[in-house]
């Protein structure tokens, strides 16, 4: 069950279970746990302190053939899968090997025009915003049922295209997509306006109307979940959508979009364009026919999206951007528990998570013990083919990200941080990187300032609550934070002082459907999930009519 807890940390609601003493001290514990989890003999690779052993971690076995066929590689426009207008395609690759999985239609400005035109017709003339809210609810609920019926295919596609473990996609991400769609389906017939009193003989209605055509751009690190976060509320509110997928991971969104049509979504309500940011993304962001834009990705790209939206028709924009989230371990912490939770907060999804706990602040009284145990846990982390049972960490998304992470590792070494684990590629094939831990990290170092987006843990030392609050907030980002303490007063003080959109206390990565998510400062604008996400896709209209001979006002 320990493996399931690790894979489903997104759904954790409280303090993690205390690991056994052996679980953070030696390979014998890993072997014992492996037997309990049903690991296959020979399926594990364990890092040791020896670089030669670490280097073979992901290279000694042939990749498993994914148990799924690629069915959809074309653009989805007006209910049909079609080629790009230019006829161009691009390769989506297997990050385990760098081999091509499939060639996908490469959408550009002309395809965005076609998709927006289809969405506009569907909204202005089609049945979706005109059917009852209950009927829209039923479509989204049927979609959730289909997600569950095709869960194995969807999970395998997400693992194959993105490198995340099959245990993660099967046990956590696909079930969460179904949950999100049921959540938003439930909201569809509960969106209503108000009747408000006026200072005179007037009847005043406040209506909440669908905003129109929503352009949505999703990232490569969580393509399925971001599909649900964005498409779910937009459709529940009665809008039409043009969705641009990330060029690294287009396959799962195309697959689930086909299921939405099977569930009864009218043609043109959801359109999916695969393509690149400077072409398809820029065209969508600046399109005069798009009424609303939502983007998840890097802060730098978010600025471009916001500028393009402003320069075109001043469309409102929701942004969920980067982070450099602090994970604060107080001096009263159970160190074994803190090490495990900090490990998961950083290394989850190969470290490719916008809210990763990438600055681990540890109180000076427990710092040395924490560093040693964090090192041991990183050396035990199971890296390999994400289709294999028991693997904790798959490859990074692509060669570009792989090189970027290793450059940050070099920067950490060059700046004087102490490399206590990892620091190199794992194996000789694909984009695997050793779980890496730095100690003696200082605030001014690049690895403590910039978003690495990889399996690199930076451990910093602090002395007082006032000091750690000041240092944790000294960043342009403000997405999330973690606090690990047994003292309620300390938890309350930190939760209110940290300038972030989410504070997890004695837990991390809890993403329930009703819990809002978004950032302060340069980590974004607006909120995803919960009732707050519905506001992104609604217009507010006041309707005032006179009342004659009113019996009451």
UniProtKB/TrEMBL annotation:
PROSITE patterns: ALDEHYDE_DEHYDR_CYS (PS00070), ALDEHYDE_DEHYDR_GLU (PS00687). SUPFAM superfamilies: ALDH-like (SSF53720). Coiled coil: none annotated. InterPro entries: Ald_DH/histidinol_DH (IPR016161), Ald_DH_C (IPR016163), Ald_DH_CS_CYS (IPR016160), Ald_DH_CS_GLU (IPR029510), Ald_DH_N (IPR016162), Aldehyde_DH_dom (IPR015590). The active site is at residue 320. It holds the Pfam family Aldedh. Keywords: NAD, Oxidoreductase. GO terms for molecular function: aldehyde dehydrogenase (NAD+) activity. GO terms for cellular component: mitochondrion. Residues 81-543 form the Aldehyde dehydrogenase domain. One of its GO terms (biological process) is carboxylic acid metabolic process. Belongs to the aldehyde dehydrogenase family. This is Aldehyde dehydrogenase domain-containing protein. It comes from Oryza nivara (Indian wild rice).
